[in-house]
Amino acid sequence: MLKLPVYLDNNATTPMDPRVLETMIPYFTEHFGNAASRNHPFGWEAEEAVDYAREQVAALIGADPKEIIFTSGATEGDNLAIKGVYEMYASKGNHIITATTEHKAVLDTCKHIEKLGGEVTYLEVKEDGLIDLAELEAAIRPTTILVAIMYANNEIGVVQPIKEIAAIAKKHGVLFFSDAVQAVGKIPVDVIKDGIDLMAFTAHKMYGPKGIGALYVRRKNPRVKVTAQMDGGGHERGMRSGTLNVPGIVGFGKACEIAKKEMAEDASRLSKLRDKLENALLQIEESYVNGNREHRLPHVANISFKHVEGEGLLMGFNKNIALSSGSACTSASLEPSYVLKALGLGDDLAHSSLRFGLGRFTTEEQIDYTIEQITNTVLKLRDMSPLWEMYKEGIDLNSIEWAHH
Amino acid sequence: MAYSEKVIDHYSNPKNVGTLDKGSKSVGTGLVGAPECGDVMRLQIQVDDSTGVITDAKFKTFGCGSAIASSSLATEWLKGKTVDQAMAIDNMDLVEELNLPPVKIHCSVLAEDAIKAAINDYRVKNGLEELVFEEKGVH
Q: pTM (2 decimals)?
């Protein structure tokens, strides 16, 4: 039996794996100790659990456990990496390079840096959502201290050429930070092979709990340091003060262990389901995939249905299927997705997009149901769309003088 | 954000979706909004020339559920009204009837604009002067 509603918004957050929850529970009650309490068994137990989880987290990304700094999540990781490097390396320079399709936690942190007097270059992306490596290299100046490029995009799922970016940064003696929230636990990420110096990721996008994440900070070749953004007890090698969230960390560790073991199988199953969904929806006239289809996360699809508005489309099934749209009719600005606009999509196509994020618990039955519901709703709304009627009559919509408001 | 039951009802069972002959002298057509803004409404009225009564109204809308509901409700209200009465339809009446939240008020403004544009189109076709309406300025 198909259980409704269907959840296809796994880029926003994932459900917690029951195995993760099970591992966490004792650390709320029996083993409640403070990992920083050095003088009694309660503290020792907590510390031991944290050490073990740190190893599990590090193992997933090919890091040394000492290189894992626990944070409250990736927003904090992004802030700590960018602001921390900016402060720590102030004597070397003040210029940061990032891209226009980054998450707001990176973009807004960069804007903050600009207010502090720093300089930031925002690279445009190509039509397929990938950055141009030549442009990246050309943007590097003697004062550049950091390149901040995400591993995989949250809206379209495209995977940036990480190794190549890292090589360019290294060649010029610039640090490379990657927000890898959408990639870690979904595709193989290895900080050594990839050449990443700093990397933020979070548990709740990989079937772990909310409120716990990590920043990877390289210790060798080169040894990287970030200035702490919170003052306090000097936890996490002085880079992030605050009592450790022991149950969260234990859950994060377990989630990483499961991901390491099951990632390949999940990815191959989900890419088949994603392709089935995508190919079926592309059967609908005038529907388009947004972003590079080859260099892409296996479980993500972003599709625009021309002449149908995204929010209106969601309304047709959002009681039964949880999805996101690149349209933002509810926001005060009425601006559609800045990521889709950065690909060069017109506002009309950006308004017409849906983002699908499949996950570990997505079934084929749910995908079949989704295909049917979305197809029906698109066809119904096109019958109601004046733009579709004009398009069918061969009227060039660009020739019409619209009353912009 | 949850939609009101009335919005859901109009979205699920829209009233008067369709197209009237825009070339006819007794049909007024209003096309408002822009694809870039995520809202385009086309509202049409069929007017009985002798009585000035709107005998039929149709719409097609590209937009969110509230935009669809606003135009669907507008066509329901237009039918049977005279052109003069139709001019008095205020967007806030639509807001009230559909329980639109503040972020969706622009949908009702668009519907009011569509009504007025349709009336003006009808007037111009019939040798009457175009009316100048006050800007709502909510967009």
A: 0.93
